[in-house]
Amino acid sequence: MDLKQNNNTAVLVDQAPVSKSRLAMSSSLPACSPPSATLSSGLYLTIPKKIPMPSKFDEINLGVFLDAMKSSSPRKNHKEINFEDAFKDTNSAYRTWMKKYPSALTSFEQITNYAKGKKVALFLDYDGTLSPIVDNPDNAFMSSAMRSAVKDVAKFFPAAIISGRSRDKVYEFIGLKDLFYAGSHGMDLACPGKESNLFQPASKFLPIINAVFKCLIDKTKDIKGSKVENNKFCLSVHYRLVDEKNWSVIAQRVHDILKNYPLLQLTHGRKVLEIRPIIDWNKGKAVNLLLECLGLNRDDVLPIYIGDDRTDEDAFKVLRELNRGYGILVSSVSKETEAHYSLKDPSEVMVFLRSLVRWKNAQIALD
Ligand SMILES: O=P(O)(O)OC[C@H]1O[C@H](O[C@H]2O[C@H](CO)[C@@H](O)[C@H](O)[C@H]2O)[C@H](O)[C@@H](O)[C@@H]1O
């Protein structure tokens, strides 16, 4: 199928008459100056009209924002919590949750029974899935055991990494050639099998992203522990190492910058504020596109997507909508999810990948 027909929104963004000159105008502005351009709406991009924002968060908005920041990853410091009771509560909530989202390890036979006669395609998130969450994003290395598990699994099944990181960065971490890589939450992917294969639906936003990156660096440099990461078509503002009493400061600064950039939106990840273009593209759409490029958009293909983050929910949702394949959420706490199964942490992900390899070898031996 022709990519352009199949992936209407994203491909059309590349052709969109919108914003080219206006985006360029923003990039030539000094960092942190609001763009002088007003909003435009193109034929293909749906860009909301600019809603006047208060210069300061009002208390309610800031409260909501901070709640989202607090709930974005389990807390480390529970000074006032009775640990024994909290542990019991958490454990029982998790057990109840596991009934709905059983372990992909204990359900392995069920999964592989369903996979018989089908081609499995694997989609893997990186941070929190293949590498454990660590304080410094630059140190999120993958273990060599995990690398070899991924390498082995990719010998038998088409496998793709879909990460919020830049494509180059995630490739640098993983370093395996026989995989497909999508960076910037799927906004940067090399479509296998296509001649001109780079698919970058947000390319026109690069000047804005780079301007906001500089601005964020400048405006957060005095907040101890904060870190701004440029993921090419999106940005991450990390606050994992910021003292909680300064979270409202970081929230306010990010809000103050973004109110000048209505073409960007903000989402919450794991102790990170993620800033990205307001295009209708996400990890779920990237999964669909990759299935298409790989000729795997077929009933006899079983896509399995493993991820730990809110952005992975878009991919779980797509698998549910296709009524094909399984989403597996990596989490050691109960969470609302569109996934079918769960795994506790990256070490369980590795066991699952190794089990897939063993299962495939056994299948081959039987043939
Ligand atoms: O889609 P992903 O591959 O999961 O990327 C999502 C974000 O992951 C990284 O941040 C997270 O992991 C860091 C390292 O463990 C951790 O320090 C941080 O608190 C987490 O939010 C990455 O640095 C971000 O840019 C990605 O957006």
Automatic annotation (TrEMBL):
Which pathway does this polypeptide act in? Glycan biosynthesis; trehalose biosynthesis
Any one Gene Ontology molecular-function term assigned to this protein's record: trehalose-phosphatase activity
Which cofactors are required for activity?
A: a divalent metal cation
Q: Does the keyword Hydrolase apply?
A: yes
Q: Which domain of life is it from?
A: Eukaryota
Which Enzyme Commission number(s) are on file for it?
A: 3.1.3.12
Q: Recite the UniProt keywords alphabetically.
A: Hydrolase
Its UniProt entry gives the catalysed reaction(s) as:
alpha,alpha-trehalose 6-phosphate + H2O = alpha,alpha-trehalose + phosphate
Q: Which GO terms describe its biological process?
A: trehalose biosynthetic process
Q: What does this protein do?
A: Removes the phosphate from trehalose 6-phosphate to produce free trehalose.
Q: Which family does it belong to?
A: Belongs to the trehalose phosphatase family.
Q: Can you name this protein?
A: Trehalose 6-phosphate phosphatase
Query: What organism is this sequence from?
Result: Dendrobium nobile
